[in-house]
C-alpha cells in the first residue's frame, strides 16, 4: 500500500477541520445514547410484553435476555425488482441470528419508490424527498430501544442514503447493509439505448420499445446499468459497511445466501457487550465519507451522489461540498467503464474483478483511506480488495490476479482517464456539476443561444416540432428542491442525444437532477442557487448565449443579468400526493448541502 496521495490527504484534512465542531457534537450524541440506552431487563415488563408478543419462536430467548436482539429495517416491496428478493429475508435472517445465540426482529419498513417507474411522470417529484421519509421511517423503526444492532435492507436510489441518514442518528448501534444483488444481464444496454433513440425519432413503435425495455429489466434484482442504485452498493463497499464483496452477487445463489448469513453474524459480533464494538457512527467518519467520494469518481458513478454524499455525511456531523469532490476528481483516475460510460453492465464489471479489483488498485496507489473501521472481521479496507467465493459452501476471499477485461477495468497506472470526471462548473449562473466521464471530450465545451423551459414535456414538444434543430443550450429551470422536489430529467436524454447525433452542439443546464443512467450529452446539473426565489437561471431569456465548459469549469452567460426581473416562481402542482410534500419543499436547502428538509430543519 502506497502513501496517501497528498491531494486526498489535504482534502480529507480540510473536511476534518471544517467538521470539527459538528462531528464532535455528533460523537457526543451517540456516546450519550449508548450510555442512556437501558438494558432490556430493566425495561417495564408491559413494554417488553408488547415487544415480544409476536416473536413466538424467540420469546424465551428474548425474555431471558439470552443474546443480542438485532433490528431489521427493510425497504421490501415487490414493485422494485431490486427489493423483491427481500420478501423472504426476515425468516432467513432470524435463523442466521439463532445460529450465534442472537435474535432478530423486523423493526420496521420504509417506503421504496422506483425512479425508473416514475421517470418523466409526476411521481418523480416525490423522489428526492422520499429519502427524508425513508430516514424518518428508519428513525421510527429504531425508536423502540429494543435493539443491539441493525441490519439495513435496501439497494436503490434514495433508499440506501435514506437508511444511512436515519440509522446514523442511532449510531451507537453497529450496523451492516444487506444488498440482494443485480438481476442477470439481458438485452445489452447499447441496444436498449439504440431503440430508445429510434422511438424518440418516431422510427420504432411503442411495442418495440416496451419489448426492448422488458428485455433489459426482466427479473428480480437490481437494474444492471451503473446508475444510482449500483453506485450505492459501490459506496457501501468503499465505506466498509457491507460484508466484503457483497455488492454485485446475484440473488438466489448460494454465495448470496452466504453473504446474508455473514452479515447477521458480523452485526451480532460487533455489539457493545462483546470485544469488537463498532458503532455505525464511528465507522462513518470523515475518511469513510471521502472513500465514498473516491469510489464514485474511480468508477464513474451516479451524479445523484453529489447530493447524497453531503446529506448522509451531515447526518454523521461531517461537512463535504462540491469543491472537495472536484479536487478529489482531479487526482482520482477513472478505473472502470460500466454502462452508460461503457458497453458492459455491473455483472460484467463484477466478473472482471469488480469492487475487489477497484479497491485493491486504489489502496496500492495511495488513492483511498485503508484505515477506515468497516464491518469486516479484519478492520480496515484491505479486506474489501479481494474476491469472494465459496470454499465447500463456506464464504471465503482470495486475491485477484489482474483485470479480467481491460475494456471495463484498468489499473491505476493505466486508467481510462487521469481524473474522475466529476467537474464543478461555476460562473454567473451559479455552481453546478458536470459528469465529464460520460461525455466525449470533444463535447466538453458548448457555447450557444439558449432555449428556456420550465416543463420537461415542453422540451419534448419543441424537439418533435423541430424547434431545437440547431446548436442550443436547453435550460430547464424551476426543477430544484424547493420548486418541485428536484426530479430527475432522464427522459430528456434521448431527444437531446438525437440532436447531438445530427451534428448539433447541444447542452443541458438545469437546477434539477439527471439519472445515474444518463450520459453522452454535456449537462450542468444541480445548479445552485436554484431558480426559485430569484436564482440566476430565473433571469435567463431565450436567445441568451450560455457557455458550459468542463475543461475550464465555466458556467456563464454573456447576457447582462443585472437589470432583469426574475421569472415568476411557478405555483406548486397538485395531485399524485405532491401537495403532501409542501413542508419538505418549503424547508429544503440547496443541492450542494444535500437538498434535505429534514436535516435543514434539524439544524444539522
UniProtKB/TrEMBL annotation:
Q: Pathway membership of this protein?
A: Carbohydrate metabolism; Entner-Doudoroff pathway
A Pfam entry, by short name: ILVD_EDD_N
Cofactor dependence: [4Fe-4S] cluster
Q: Does the keyword Ribonucleoprotein apply?
A: no
What InterPro entries does UniProt report for this protein, alphabetically? Answer: 6-phosphgluc_deHydtase, Dihydro-acid_dehy_C, DiOHA_6PGluconate_deHydtase_CS, ILV_EDD_C, ILV_EDD_N, IlvD/EDD_N
Family recorded in the similarity comment: Belongs to the IlvD/Edd family.
What name has this protein been given in UniProt?
Answer: Phosphogluconate dehydratase
- Native species of this protein? Aurantiacibacter gilvus
Amino acid at each position: 500500500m502506497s502513501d496517501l496521495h497528498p491531494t486526498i490527504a489535504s482534502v480529507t484534512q480540510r473536511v476534518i477541520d471544517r467538521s470539527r465542531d459538528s462531528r464532535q457534537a455528533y460523537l457526543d450524541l451517540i456516546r450519550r445514547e449508548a450510555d442512556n440506552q437501558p438494558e432490556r431487563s430493566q425495561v417495564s415488563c408491559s413494554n417488553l410484553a408488547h415487544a415480544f408478543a409476536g416473536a413466538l419462536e424467540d420469546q424465551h430467548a428474548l425474555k431471558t435476555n439470552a443474546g443480542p436482539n438485532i433490528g431489521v429495517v427493510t425497504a421490501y416491496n415487490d414493485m422494485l425488482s431490486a427489493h423483491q428478493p427481500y420478501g423472504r429475508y426476515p425468516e432467513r435472517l432470524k435463523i442466521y441470528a439463532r445460529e450465534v445465540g442472537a435474535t432478530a426482529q423486523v423493526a420496521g419498513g420504509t417506503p421504496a419508490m422506483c425512479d425508473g417507474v416514475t421517470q418523466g411522470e409526476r411521481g418523480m417529484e416525490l423522489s428526492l424527498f422520499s429519502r427524508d421519509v425513508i430516514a424518518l421511517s428508519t428513525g421510527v423503526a429504531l425508536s423502540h430501544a429494543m435493539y443491539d444492532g441493525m441490519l439495513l435492507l435496501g439497494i436503490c436510489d434514495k433508499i440506501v442514503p435514506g437508511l444511512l441518514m436515519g440509522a446514523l442518528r442511532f449510531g451507537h448501534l453497529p450496523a451492516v447493509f444487506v444488498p440482494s444483488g443485480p438481476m442477470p444481464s439481458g438485452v445489452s444496454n447499447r441496444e436498449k439505448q439504440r431503440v430508445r433513440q429510434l422511438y424518440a425519432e418516431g422510427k420504432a413503435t411503442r411495442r418495440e420499445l416496451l419489448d426492448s425495455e422488458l428485455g433489459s429489466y426482466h427479473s428480480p434484482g437490481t437494474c444492471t446499468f451503473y446508475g444510482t442504485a449500483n453506485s450505492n452498493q459501490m459506496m457501501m463497499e468503499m465505506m466498509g459497511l457491507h460484508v466484503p464483496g457483497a455488492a454485485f452477487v446475484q440473488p438466489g445463489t448460494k454465495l448470496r445466501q452466504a453473504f446474508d448469513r455473514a452479515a447477521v453474524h458480523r452485526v451480532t459480533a460487533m455489539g457493545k457487550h462483546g470485544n469488537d464494538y463498532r458503532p455505525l457512527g464511528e465507522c462513518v467518519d470523515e475518511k469513510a465519507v471521502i472513500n465514498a467520494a473516491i469510489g464514485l469518481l474511480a468508477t464513474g458513478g451516479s451524479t445523484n451522489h453529489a447530493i447524497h454524499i453531503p446529506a448522509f455525511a451531515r447526518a454523521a456531523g461531517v461537512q463535504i461540498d462540491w469543491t472537495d469532490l472536484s479536487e478529489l476528481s482531479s487526482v482520482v483516475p477513472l478505473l472502470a467503464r460500466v454502462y452508460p460510460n461503457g458497453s458492459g453492465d455491473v455483472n460484467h464489471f463484477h466478473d472482471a474483478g469488480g469492487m475487489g479489483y477497484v479497491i485493491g488498485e486504489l489502496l496500492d496507489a495511495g488513492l483511498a483511506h485503508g484505515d477506515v473501521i468497516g464491518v469486516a472481521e479484519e478492520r480496515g479496507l484491505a479486506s474489501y480488495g479481494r474476491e469472494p467465493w465459496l470454499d465447500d459452501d463456506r464464504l471465503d476471499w482470495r486475491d485477484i490476479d489482474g483485470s479480467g477485461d481491460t475494456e471495463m477495468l484498468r489499473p491505476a497506472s493505466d486508467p481510462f482517464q487521469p481524473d474522475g470526471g466529476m467537474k464543478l462548473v461555476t460562473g454567473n449562473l451559479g455552481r453546478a456539476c458536470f459528469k465529464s466521464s460520460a461525455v466525449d471530450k470533444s463535447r466538453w465545451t458548448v457555447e450557444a443561444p439558449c432555449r428556456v423551459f420550465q416543463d420537461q414535456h415542453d422540451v419534448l414538444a419543441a424537439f418533435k416540432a423541430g424547434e431545437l434543430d440547431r446548436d442550443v443550450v436547453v435550460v430547464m429551470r424551476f426543477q430544484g428542491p424547493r420548486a418541485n422536489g428536484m426530479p430527475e430529467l432522464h427522459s430528456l436524454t434521448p431527444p437531446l442525444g438525437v440532436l447531438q447525433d445530427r451534428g448539433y452542439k447541444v447542452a443541458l443546464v438545469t437546477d434539477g437532477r439527471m439519472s445515474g443512467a444518463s450520459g453522452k450529452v454535456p449537462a450542468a446539473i444541480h445548479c445552485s442557487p436554484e431558480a426559485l426565489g430569484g436564482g440566476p437561471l430565473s433571469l435567463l431569456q431565450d436567445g441568451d448565449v450560455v457557455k458550459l465548459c468542463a475543461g475550464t469549469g465555466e458556467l456563464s452567460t454573456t447576457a447582462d443579468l443585472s437589470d432583469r426581473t426574475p421569472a415568476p416562481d411557478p405555483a406548486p402542482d397538485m395531485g399524485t400526493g405532491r401537495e403532501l410534500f409542501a413542508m419538505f419543499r418549503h424547508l429544503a436547502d440547496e443541492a450542494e448541502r444535500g437538498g434535505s428538509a429534514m436535516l435543514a430543519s434539524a439544524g444539522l
